[in-house]
Structure to design on (562 residues):
């Protein structure tokens, strides 16, 4: 059970129970859905971007603790960020959850998800919302 | 305060003779550890583990007499052909088919269903006709019919089920009343809910209207006796890997008259009598439906798996597994916030459940770290999930080698999970 605490850290359990920015933005400038066909987990990401800045970001959907917490933490991190930073953050997060790298700077609390790298079958859960967010930006 | 966990549990009493320890030693994989814990394998509905007899039979085939079948003059081909056809005989007797010609080897249940959808469906279903399935089908008994309907302009009709997971028979009868139904296909045992459907009754109702019936037996074949003549179904499909045999091999049973009238499904070598560039004459049954080189060692392994199972006796297997099912149902009911989905009167040895506020994937991951393998997800039955308004379920499913101690380990960890997520 102990190594499970590395994955299911308090921050993750907390964001799972009380996800932040878990709502719909009624007139988003960008929106996309992500779906994990393996498990049926589904997330919609909404963004309100003005003058190159993410003014608001929110998500909706049903998923496991890892995907909910990851989505919730992502919205906290990205709110107020310049869209040009997003690609860097996406890549940083991706390497945190898939490789043994030291945590790159700038990810804040999201680094609690680093434990997922020991659970290969769950990495897709952690990256689902991020992929949806990137798809939303590309779709504009 | 007295915690639920501390209530001592009584192991179930057995009223059947079974040397479980001996059975377990026949499964090499059950000795392995997973993250430092003994493996507790509770994902048998997805695929079962293989006894040494089966593993050895496959190895023996490749080591000692392997060759292509039905085409060589040499000794190895004769031996391989004999072993392959012997497996067909075993399958025939196992499901009590009238003849070996009615046993078609396929790659699995999925291919067996596709064969019927494409061959019989493709030749008899026309625009405006209807195909009837049920709301509790595995995707592999939905999509082939959906594609058939799209291709032909036919309509797919779905029999609903009640909250316990039992088909609503009068709705089924009502759907068959249209006079346009050309085919009925339903699952013998639901992989998501465990429901055992009243096959014989459903077949009778369809036959009263001259409608042929396909039964998806993937989840039924390993858990209770299947007699296709008693059931009177027209087709019965199952997979080797869900009955202690290898993956990549399966069976389609079909009534001879129907199979004879059906066009081939795939065409090529091994399924022809005479080929000229003007015209090809197809081979007799069953070869007509076995184009190309089949999974020779797999078929032989399946035959050995069935013999192995018969040696234990399906009634003993059923008794043991039903004891496990009852015990599991009782024990899981003690976990607060746990909801069992599928509570039909007649159930196969599997239990699907959800836990309040905890996603099945998290349950599955945590159990896995304790060495307990379960299924977590939509179980390839998304319409069934929808019926219960859940995106996914956790599912434990049993085989002859499972023990009640393994269920205790499961329940203990479920309590820990509750604690972690509280
Ligand atoms: C009820 C049911 N039908 C069909 C299948 C498909 O079997 P296979 O993947 O062996 O073709 C399964 C397997 O999960 C099943 O449970």
């Amino acid at each position: 059970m102990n190594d499970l605490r590395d994955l299911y850290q308090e921050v993750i359990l907390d964001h799972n129970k009380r996800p932040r920015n878990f709502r719909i933005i009624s007139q988003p400038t960008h929106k996309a859905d992500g779906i994990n066909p393996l498990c049926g987990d589904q997330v919609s990401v909404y963004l309100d971007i003005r003058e190159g800045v993410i003014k608001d970001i929110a998500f909706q959907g049903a998923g496991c603790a890892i995907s909910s917490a990851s989505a919730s933490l992502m919205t906290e991190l990205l709110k107020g960020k310049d869209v040009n930073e997003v690609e860097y953050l996406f890549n940083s997060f991706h390497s945190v959850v898939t490789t043994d790298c030291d945590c790159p700077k700038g990810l804040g609390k999201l680094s609690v998800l680093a434990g997922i790298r020991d659970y290969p079958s769950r990495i897709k859960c952690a990256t689902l919302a991020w992929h949806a967010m990137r798809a939303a930006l590309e779709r504009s | 305060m007295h915690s639920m966990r501390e209530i001592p549990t009584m192991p179930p009493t057995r009223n059947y003779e079974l040397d479980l320890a001996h059975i377990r030693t026949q499964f090499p994989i059950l000795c392995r550890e997973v993250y430092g814990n003994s493996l507790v394998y509770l994902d048998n509905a997805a695929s079962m583990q293989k006894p040494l007899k089966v593993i050895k039979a496959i190895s023996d085939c490749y080591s000692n007499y392997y060759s292509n079948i039905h085409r060589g003059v040499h000794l190895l081909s004769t031996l391989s052909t004999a072993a392959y056809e012997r497996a067909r005989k075993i399958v025939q007797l196992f499901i009590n088919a009238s003849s070996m010609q009615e046993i078609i080897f396929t790659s699995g249940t999925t291919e067996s269903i596709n064969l019927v959808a494409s061959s019989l469906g493709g030749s008899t279903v026309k625009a405006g006709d209807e195909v009837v399935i049920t709301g509790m089908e595995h995707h592999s008994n939905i999509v082939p019919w959906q594609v058939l309907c799209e291709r032909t302009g036919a309509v797919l009709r779905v029999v609903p089920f009640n909250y316990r997971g039992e088909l609503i028979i009068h709705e089924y009868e009502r759907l068959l009343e249209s006079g346009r139904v050309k085919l009925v296909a339903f699952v013998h045992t639901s992989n998501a809910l465990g429901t055992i459907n009243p096959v014989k009754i459903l077949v009778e109702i369809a036959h009263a209207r001259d409608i042929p019936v396909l039964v998806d037996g993937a989840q039924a074949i390993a858990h209770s006796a299947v007699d296709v003549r008693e059931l009177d179904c027209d087709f019965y499909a199952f997979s080797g890997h869900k009955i202690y045999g290898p993956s990549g091999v399966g069976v389609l049973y079909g009534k001879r008259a129907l199979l004879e009238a059906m066009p081939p499904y795939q065409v090529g070598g091994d399924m022809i009598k005479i080929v000229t560039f003007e015209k090809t004459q197809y081979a007799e049954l069953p070869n007509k439906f076995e184009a190309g080189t089949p999974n020779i060692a797999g078929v032989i392994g399946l035959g050995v798996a069935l013999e192995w199972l018969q040696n234990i006796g399906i009634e003993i297997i059923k008794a043991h597994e039903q004891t496990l099912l009852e015990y599991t149902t009782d024990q899981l009911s003690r976990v607060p916030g746990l909801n069992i989905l599928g509570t039909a009167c007649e159930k196969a040895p599997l239990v699907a459940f959800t836990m309040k506020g905890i996603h099945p994937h998290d349950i599955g991951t945590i159990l896995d770290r304790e060495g307990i393998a379960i299924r977590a997800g939509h179980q390839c039955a998304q319409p069934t999930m929808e019926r219960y308004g859940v995106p996914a379920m956790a599912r434990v499913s049993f085989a002859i080698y499972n023990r009640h101690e393994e269920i205790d380990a499961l329940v203990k960890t479920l309590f820990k999970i509750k604690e972690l997520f509280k």
User: Anything to note?
Assistant: The pocket of pyridoxal-5'-phosphate is lined by residues B 108-110, 138, 140-141, 187, 191, 216, 218-219, 239, 380 (CB under 6 Å). The first strand of chain A starts at residue 30 and ends at 36. Helices of chain A lie at 2-7, 10-17, 65-78, 83-98, 123-139.
